[in-house]
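Database export, one record per block. Field names are fixed; values are copied verbatim from the stored entry.
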Amino acid sequence: MTIIAIDRLAPDTHSCCTQLDAHGYCIIRGAVPPLLVERLANDLASDFQSTPHSTGPFYGEKTRRFHGLLRRSRHIGRFALDPLVVAIVETFLKPWCDTIQINLTQAIEIEPGGLPQPPHRDQEMWPVRSAGVEYMINVMWPFTSYRAENGATLIWPGSHRRQDEIVMPLEEAIAAEMNPGDALVFLGSTLHAGSANGSLDARRGMIISYSLGWLKPYELPWLAYPPEIARSLPRSLMSLAGYQAHRPNLGTYEGRCPSLLLSDAADAAQGAIDILHPEQEQLIADYRAGRLSPNTASQPGDDG
């Protein structure tokens, strides 16, 4: 099966989203300059060296994985906040949430000799499913060349439309072959798997995934980036990493938006502050004004 890719020299949000919607994945060639990838990979080289092997049949015992990448290199923001990537993510996720969030940052090294990863859909970590709703999007950035022989990620094109099938024929899969600077974007509903590394060298890269802002993320951001660390990082990055409330009143600290923890006013005494949708505020006003009756139909998005 042929790999379908888009050249960053002439991409746009529409063409990327069209491919993602049709096939469940999109490879963007030359998404960032290779030199930027090299600088980030160099920043993380010592972490790869010091991280123990993973444990378990899913992660794989010939792999190394570590998280909290937003605090490990000043270059990571360029990847996490890439304008094209964020536009793609918002196109698919914003219809179902107030704000998007970073679900995970994970660096991965696959050594030779390990077993292939079992096929899976990442959004299956949440026990919810609504027709037409995407819960997350993954973006994989290679630090070394990804080839079929060294364990390039397998993608089953079109599998996002066949979610009742937990296993599909291997011949229907493609190996997402890429070079540093390329990016693989795929839906949380797309069946995929890390394949076995049959080469002599380790394969390295990272995943940054984004999810609906009201879901519990894979990586708890306030532990990965406690306030004393978060204050030293770009606010736009920390907002994406969880230092923002999701209406209505989700993900708050002391009843307030956690972005307060990023400012000098974090310790100032202040009561809880509602963070509501305008239509929710209007419903409250209508109720108090006597404009609602027991037979009034609920509005989309109403909460108890």
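Remark 1: The beta strands are 5-7, 25-29, 63-67, 100-110, 136-142, 153-155, 174-175, 183-187, 192-194, 203-212.
Remark 2: The helical segments are 13-23, 34-50, 76-80, 83-93, 221-224, 227-230, 235-240, 278-288.
End of record.
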